Amino acid sequence: AGREADDIVNWLKKRTGPAAATLEDAASAETLVDSNEVAVIGFFKDLTSEAAKQFLSAAEAVDDIPFGISSSTDVFTKYQLSQDGVVLFKKFDEGRNNFEGDFTKDNLLNFIKSNALPLVIEFTEQTAPKIFGGEIKTHILLFLPKSVSDYQEKLDNFKNAAGDFKGKILFIFIDSDHSDNQRILEFFGLKKEECPAVRLITLEEEMTKYKPESDDITASKIKEFCNKFLEGKIKPHLMSQDLPDDWDKQPVKVLVGKNFEEVAFDENKNVFVEF
């Protein structure tokens, strides 16, 4: 269902083999890390320990990432571990993330969820299943044409803000010049010429959209917007037609999203609204 070939292979391996492959030596660990975009290895001196059992339980719950487990001294040495640990290896961003905390299934799953996707993921046909199928249901989107001169600067600003919100908000970049993405712009009420632009959406039972107060695409402004959202201080953005200049010139006034609340709920008047 829209998964890439690698995801299907990993899913089949998980369903037909052990949740985590036993890595007997450094070479087998290196093969696992080098041949996958993301891989997770559990380093446990005692493979029957409670921590190792929690790790295997977490591995069983994740379909699309390969897991390995090892008690080999060579594997510990190769990846600079002196005690039990879990490491997520990836071919982007930091390259690896070391788990810190108590070895519980939930803690491990949260760690994997927070680190398995890039800080900023470009929306494409291939990445869409990971974006919409993931557990993070709050997404902030940067609509940015790749053709603009300051493209990399704006993308870097967006990325610099993303690290603070790992596991809470998914940061997504959309090339607003690409014809395949025009329907997404329309969904957010945006035109190509209005980009670059930032929007936030929650994909719960009701999709709710939010718009930053500032159009500045800087790391500090994006962080401020995300923090205000998480604190519940941002009102949903109701898309609206432009308010006509003569909206109040006739006996029957024209209401759009921008002036609806002010006019329809005016306590000094009796208002009848026809939809």
TrEMBL record:
The answer on whether this UniProt entry bears the keyword Transferase reads no
Q: Does the keyword Isomerase apply?
A: yes
Q: Which UniProt keywords apply?
A: Isomerase
Can you name one GO molecular function term for this protein? Answer: protein disulfide isomerase activity
InterPro entries hit by this protein: Thioredoxin-like_sf
Which family does the similarity line name?
Answer: Belongs to the protein disulfide isomerase family.
| Name of the protein this chain belongs to | PDIA1 isomerase
